[in-house]
Known about the structure:
The complex is a heterodimer. By secondary structure, chain A is of the alpha+beta class.
Amino acid sequence: MKLSHIILLIVIAVAVGVIVSTAGDASTYVSFAEAEKMAADGEEKSIHVVGKLPKDEKGRVAEMLYNPTIDANYFEFTLVDNNKRAQKVVYRSPKPADFDKSEQVVVIGAMRGETFQCEKILMKCPSKYKEGELEVKEATAKKV
Amino acid sequence: MIHTTVGTVGHLSVLVSFVSALAATFGYLQASIVKNIADNETWRRFARASFYVHATAVFAVVGSLFYMIANHYFEYHYVWKNSDLSLPTQYIFAAFWHDQEGSFLLWIFWHVVLGLILIRINKGGLEAPMMFVFALVQAFLTSMILGVIVPWIDLKIGSTPFLLLREASADAPIFQQNPDFIPADGNGMNPLLQNYWMVIHPPTLFLGFAATLVPFAYCMAGLWQKQVVEWVRPALPWALFCALVLGVGILMGGYWAYETLNFGGYWNWDPVENGSLVPWLILVAATHCMIVAKKSSSGLKASIILTIATFLSILYATFLTRSGILGDGSVHSFTDLGLSGQLLIYLFTFIAVAVVLAVRSWKYIKPDGQELTTYSREFWLFMGATVLCLSAFQIIVPTSIPVFNKVAELFGQKLNLAPPVDAIAFYNKFQLWFAVSVAILTGVGQYFWWKKVQKDKMQELLNPLWVTLLVTAGIITFAQVNNWKYIVLLTASIFAIVANGTILLNIVRGNYRLSGGAITHLGVGMMLIGILFSSGYSKIVSMNMTGMPILPGVQAFASNEGKESKENLQLWINQPQRMGDYLLTYRGKRMEARDMPGKFFPKSWIEIIEKDFHAVAVRDITLGGKTYHKKGDTLEVYPENTYYEVEYRDPDGKIFSLYPRIQQNERMGNAHSPDIKRTPSRDLYTYVAYTEDNENVWSKTQTDRVALKDTFFVNDYVAVLESVSRTNAIEGVALAQNDIAVKAQIKIFDKEKDYLIEPSFAINAERMVMRKPEISEDLGLKIQFKEIDPKTGTFVFDSNTTYRDFIVMKAMEKPLINVLWIGTLVLALGLAIASARRFREFFKMRDKETAAR
């Protein structure tokens, strides 16, 4: 066997290892019902759940609890997933800065009993930089 | 009045640049094919002229857009969207490339500059086919900013930056009422990007991207003209130049993230970061192969494949970041302009061109006589290139997960794959070993390269090995490195430094021009050590050790079992708290004026004019004995930025302040930026994780009637009315001759210390009463002296409470991070030396060939 063949074999082995490991470590997007089922089956892996934050009539995020004077590292909120299931989510870190302005949220974590223990929150804010739509109200006010 | 001229000029120039790029493509194609010397020369002249027209048009496009932004023509969508009147002048440039169209334009601009240089310096036969590739790329890129709608099939090609606002938002009612409406101000640039890095990072990075085209174009030209080896010499200096610029650009981005974002590091394995790192790794692998391409056919084959792969990976990364396929998975959110189709055609065209040319010319590569052995220098270069490619492969596979989902969708499958949850741990697991291999290979490879070691003469390598083990042992003991993986990486990195340092001292001393490789590799070793310590031994210092609920009787704290989530500390204003070796005090909110950068003063000293970037000083702004603004002055500020002064007292009693920032960003979301205390050995990194903005929200008034020395309760605080005394002056109030003024002294007892609050009360000759309340920010308390009851000898006080100001903060130490930054500079220096050497060789050979002809 030639040296170059040995090296080629090693390279292929590493490449296969990379692919297998990516497939193994990749997370998945699921619903809360599926997350619960996974937890019940003893699956420890963290998963992604996409959901919306319930808002009250004033457009503020409803049902969230954060009291930094008691515990700066405890934040609790409710998330409604795409199957309309509302679920209590606990995030053991300070409340993210943009949370109040978010609409769609992705939580990463796993179900633990009754609550979804979340390690990471990804937020999508309705941002002017993304949409760049003309806010006519403001513009008209300025003209007058 | 709407300024339509500049937009028309700009748009027309885009059209001209597109058409002239096509003309140049065709001209250079003919010049590459036609054999007749006279015709060939005609075509070449035509193509060159077309390229010059193209260049002029591109400069006109750039000039028009810049002119629009600099003059605040908000009738244009791009200007309105990306800038506003409050934008400081230096960011006019940044607004230019703030959005997709502008960044495409920046890229096009660099290609033009590089193309002009290449036409000038390249006197050999490869000009026509090489510039054909250049012009074709330009045609694709200019099509991205064309903004033309093909009428009969309603197909939009490109997105123009010269769209008027009324065209972009035609449905907005305002334009139906008044088509000539011009907004008074723009939407503004994302304040988080208003940073000097935004001025220099994108141009550097895009120059790096643009420069990958040069080696690729030479490679294509060489394969096409069956000069399968000759293309390497002119391509190599450019490949090294590109590695330098792209590498510096990437690290600038990392440094920017470290300073401005609060994820606590410089690298987040974000898809966009990966999208620039992968081409760089492949490019570096390619340069290694190009160095031996003339002597080894395997080296030549690898050079061809990797040069192509570098360029294609840039196109692939462009597709990833600009097609919107990544969704929300990235901090670099580009707007989806609906260019996915165009970007895909661009990508697949060049895949096709490259594969066809490579396959066609493969048979012209002459095989070499002997088999590769472990004792040859080529072997070690290939090993290095292989490891770099594997490293790139490991990064690109998980980054492409959204692509896999999309592809599966096309075949009717639902994968629902999400990126690994802990990206940093996931990537590091592999990259650590690639780093170890690279470090070892740089050392061994250099020894073989300079023929210090050969078969049967390996003992030379023993010296650096002994030194390495000795130094590593010392560091392990001294710095207490106890993770075996880190020990391996440390040993490998030290070996890289020792071995390359030795080479540098011994062999290269004679001719510094040859020192590029050794210096670059020395930089790599230093960077690895910096990364190892600053990331591996980053220590959270804001551990919440109290374990005590701040208010009694609440269980939430005790029930919170997770140790790692206890990494934040709450600081009440002016209440010192211990953190590790430091004593920390939060001193309050601070502002920065535009004309006094780096000087922070209390937010209460100014009043900000609503929706404006001006503020009025409510008192003299005096810092360090110097008065910058008088009371009543109007000054320019950054209204969105609030700094939170955290005073650190270290064990030696030395005091310094850090000013972490929160940027109020109404529509973008607030951004928390750290402040960093830099010392040679380590950085202390601090940011505000949470705070509440409850200024001027006061509770309902509580009224107390008390006699002297009485004790009463104000919002859970115990208070004692110590005394009431006559006073001659009340601050901020002009007292007349017959006015009677008194001041009460109320003592408030808090946990750590007592406070004295002195509200005053005055009555004048007309029995008009004046009451001046006293506010204690520290306690969040306001007390007003309401009345004096002479009959009973009692006094009445009104009190209101507000939230006490506080922050929740996180702090960490980053040891030896400066070694990473210094290593980066060393690496850049090495690449610059190497590139300069190869440019010199190229010019020498070119002139020799010209002379021979």
